[in-house]
Amino acid sequence: MPSNNKQRLRRGAIAAAVVAVAAAIPAAQASSHREAPLIAADPAVDNTDVYAFTSPDRPDTVTLVANWFGLQEPNGGPNYYPWATDARYDVNVDADGDAVPDKTFRFTFSTDDRRGKANTFLYNNGPVTSINDDNLLFRQNYDLELIEPGKTTKLVKGGRAAPSNTGPASFPNFGAIRDQATTKIPGGGQVYAGPSEDSFFLDLRVFDLLYGGNLKEVNQDTLMGYNVNTIAIQVPKTMLALKGDPKRNPVIGVWSDTERRTLKLDPGKATPQGNFVQVSRLGNPLVNEVVSSAPLKDAFNGLEPVNDAKVQALLDRVNDPELARLIQTIYGIPAPKTPRADLVEIFLTGITTKAGGPIKADLNSQLNNADVDPKRFQPSEMLRLNMSTPVSKNPNRLGVLGGDLQGFPNGRRLTDDVVDIEIQAVVGAALTGKLVPALAKGDRVNANDVRFGDRFPYVGLPSNRAVNSR
Amino acid sequence: MWKVLPLLAALFAVAACASPQAATPAATQTSSLQRNAESLQAKLRRTPEDAAAWAGLGVTQVELARVTFDPQHYARAEKALTESLRLKPEGNGEAYIGRGALANARHDFAAAREWGRRAATVLPDNAAAQGVLVDALTQLGDDAGASVALQRMLDLRPGVASFTRAAYHFELRGRLDEARGALERALETASSPDEAEFCRLHLDKLAGRTDESVETTRQLAARASSPEHLVRYGKALDEAGQPVEARAQFDLALQQLRALGGDDLTAALIAADHGDPAEALRYAEKEWGKRQSVFTADALAWALHVNGRSAEAVPYSDRAVSLGWRDPDVLRHREAILGSLR
C-alpha cells in the first residue's frame, strides 16, 4: 500500500520504530475475508406508492404524488431520511400509449450539510421556524427537469426540499415549513418535495393471511404513524394531455421510477462511473403483492414499461393470478375463468372497449384518446387516469367498483381503498359488476388515520410522534 | 470466553456514552436487522408455512452474525433455512441465497458457490444471489468469475452491498483511489448504522488512519469481539510491551474464529506468527489444496518462509500480489521472503 507507506514516513522517526516492531506481530488475519453487507435495504430509492387525480380545488389541474422511503419512524435521528444524491427520482407520463414516457419530471437532490461547521451531529441546532432558519443544519436542495423527446427544460433550480420532521420542539409549525418548500413552476404548476405522513392505509398482514390463513386478524392500519418522502406535482391538464388537448385526449398513464448510478469495474481509461440503472418502479398499487412473484419482482423493478408485454411471466401472472386461486382454496370463492382479460384491462391496457377486453366501458385507456395511433399502443403496467372524469362530491373508497368513476383504477386518490378494491377485482368484481360479499369487509382498514388536506399537496403533515408511543 | 460477554456489554455501554460520534446511531436506532428479524418472526407466528419468510429470516440471521459476531445466529439461520427448504424444496431461490450466505460465513466457499449458482438460476435478476457468488468466487480464486458476477450485481442493484464489494475488488487489484470512491458511494447509500460503520472502518483503513492505541483497540474489542478487533488489540498490547496479555487476545481471536466458522487460512497465519511453523504449514497446505486464491497463496508463502523454505515461497508470494493487492501484511510477508534470499 504505497500511500500508506508514504504517510508512515511523513510521521518521521517514530514510524520506523513502529514498522520494525510490526514485523514481529501477527497480521490482521480476519481482513482477508471481508464480510460485507449482503441484504442491504435501500429505502431511499424504493418507490412505495403513486397517486394521480384531478385536483379537487383546481379541477383544471392534475396532481401526481409519488412516495419513497416507506416506514420512516418519526424519531429516526440523527440522520433522518435524506433523499439519495446519486439517484434520479422520476415521475413519468405516457399520453400516447406507446409505454414510453412523453414527459418525465426528474428530481435530483444535493445535500447542504452544515453540521460540520457548527461542530455538531444534530440535524438542527434549536427550533426551526422557517425553511431558511440558521438552526437548520442538514438541508437538501433539488433541481427539477422536464424531459420530453428531444428536449429538456429546467423547471426548478435549487428548490428547497422540506426537511425531516425531527419533533415538535424542533419544528413547532411544520405546516409553515411545508408551505415555504412548495415551489411554483412555469406554466401554472407547483411542486413539493419533502416528508409526509404515509397516505397509504392498509393492514399489511392481509397478504400474509390471504397467502395462508384467515381474515380474523385484520383491521389495524400497519402504516399508521409512519412517514414517507413525497414528491407532489400539480400541473395544468393541458401540460400532460396528448397534443395539449385534454378534451380530445383525456387519458394519461403515470408511473414513477428511481435510477441510481452504478459503477464500472473495468472502465478502460474512463472513471469507474457507470450508467444510471432503474432500481425501482411503481404504477398500480400492490403490483408486487397481487400480480408479481419472487423471481419476477427482481426483474420488474428494472423493467421499463415498454418491455412489459415481452415478459411472458408478467402477462401470465396477470392472466392467472395466484391470489385468485388461493382465495378459492381458503374461502371457497370460485376463481374466475382464466385467462383474466378483465385484469389485463385493469393493470395493462386501461378499461376500454377498444382492446377486445370483457369490461363494457370506455374509462381510462390511452386507446380512448382521439389522437392515439392504436398501432403504436403497447400494453404496460401503469396507473391510468381519465382527466375528464368530474371530481366526485362524495368519493367512495371503493372507487369504480363502488360506482364512483373518479376513483381507482381510474387514477388513484389518496382516499381510495386500493387493497379492498384489488382483492375484489382479483375475485372478479369488475367482470360481474358486483362486490363479492364474503370479502366485502376486506382488511377492515377503510381510511387513513390522518385527515388529508383540502389543498396542494393534500398529503398529511409528517408525524412527529414515535410510532410505539401511539 | 462467553463469561466475558456481560463485561463486554458493560464496556460497550460506557463506550456508547463516551464517544458520541461513533456510538450515537447504534445507541438511538434499533438495529434494522434486528427489527427485520423480529417482524419476520411475528409474521411466521401468524403464517408458519411461509417458506419465503423463513428464508428471509435465515438470511437476516446470517447478517446478524456478521454484525454482532455472535455465532448463535448461525444456528438460528440454519434452523430457519432448513424449515424454508422443507416447506419448499424446489426452486426456493431465497433459501438458496441464505444457504450460500451461511456457507460463505462459515468459509465453506465451494458449497457457497454451488448455492449461489442455484440461487442465480432460479432468481437471475437478484443482486444478493450474485453477491453470494462474488464472495465465494473471490475466496476460491476465480477472479474472472468473481468480476463478472460483481459487475452483474452492480448493474442489478447499485447500493451498499455491491459498492462495498466493488471496493474490495479494487483494493485486491491495488486500485486504491477507486476503492475509496466505491466506499464513499457505499457510505452515502448506507441506510443503517452497521452499514455506515463498515464503510467508515474500511475508509479509515485505506487512509491508514485507524487508531491502533491500546485504549482504542480495547474499546473496539469490547464493543464487538470480532476476531479482527481482538487481533488489533493484541497487537497494540504487544507493542506496549505486554506480550502475555497480547497472547491471550490472539488465543481469544482464534477461539472466536473457530466459533464463527474460521478456516485453516486464518489458523495458518496465526500459527506462523506465534512460532508454530510446522502447524502453520500444515494448515496452509490444507487450505491451498481447497482453494488457490491470493489469500491462500499469501498464507502458504508465509508458512513456507517461517519453515525456512523461502525459495519455495516465492512463486506463491508472486501469486499473492499478482492482481495488484498491496495489503500491508502481504507486503510485509513478501519483503521478508525476498529479503531472506538476497
- Could you tell me which chain pair has the largest interface and how many residues each side has? A-B, 62 and 99 residues
Which descriptor suits the 3D outline of chain A? Answer: globular
Kindly report the average pLDDT value of chain A.
Answer: 87
What's the number of domains of chain B?
A: 2
Unreliable sequence segments of chain A:
1-32
Largest sheet of chain B: none
Helix content of chain A: 10-25%
Order of helices and strands of chain A: HHEEEEEEHEEHEHEEHHHHHEHH
Provide structural commentary.
- The complex is a heterodimer of chains A (470) and B (342).
- Chain A is α+β, with helices and mostly antiparallel strands.
- Chain A has helices spanning 2-10, 13-22, 174-181, 205-210, 237-240, 287-290, 294-302, 312-319, 322-331, 341-349, 418-426, 429-432; strands spanning 47-54, 61-72, 87-94, 103-113, 138-148, 151-160, 183-185, 189-197, 227-236, 251-263, 273-282, 383-386.
- In chain A, strands 3, 4, 5, 6, 10, 11 and 12 form a seven-stranded antiparallel beta sheet that branches.
- The longest helix of chain A has 10 residues, at 13-22.
- The model of chain A is unreliable at 1-32 (pLDDT under 50).
- Chain B is an all-alpha fold and 342 residues long.
- Chain B contains 20 helices and no strands.
- At the A-B interface, α1, α2, α4, β10 and β11 of A face α2, α3, α4, α6 and α8 of B.
Which key features would you list for this structure?
heterodimer, A: 470 residues, alpha+beta, seven-stranded antiparallel β-sheet, five-stranded antiparallel β-sheet, 12 helices, 12 strands, 23% strand, globular, disordered N terminus, B: 342 residues, mainly alpha, Serine Threonine Protein Phosphatase 5, Tetratricopeptide repeat, 2 domains, 80% helix
